[in-house]
Amino acid sequence: MGGFKCGCGNIFSGSHNPGQQFRLVPDELFDQIAWPAPDDLDTQERQRAVEASFSSLYVCGNCGRLHRDGDGVSILSYVAEVSPPRIWADFTLRDELGRVLLREDRSLADIRRHKLLLNPPLPVVLYDDSGAEAVGEAGFGLDSFGGYDETLWAVRLDDDPA
Fold first, then answer.
1. Distances (CA, A) of 89 to 12, 86, 94
2. pLDDT tens, 143-157?
């Protein structure tokens, strides 16, 4: 396999992903591969079972998606149904567009804990210590010149006008 890009932006470059690549073994071949009888170690049947198990499974360390080798050169991807990540926010910290800025230490800690890469629009749930919660979409913040800053996260809340 040459490589591929996960839906979250993480790049898999062939076999250079230690800890993220696994081999799948079909149930009907598992015993032959894992616990062969001494007489079966060098048989053609066992060799075919081992070769049949060469389907790879890749786990994205960023978002948790599973990718497996499909037919030919295709990669099949699976995403668990999960709710949007929860990120602590200071709802009073806003940019010129009225979006909530995520630049406080607690916000950044939640972003790191979830291992998030910002690929706008990213649905998120913001919360604070008062118990308030708000749903929104994270995007890039603005720098001092009005351009987008890819290192700054800004969240437009769903109940705010666009």
1. 32, 9, 10
2. 888 888 888 999 999
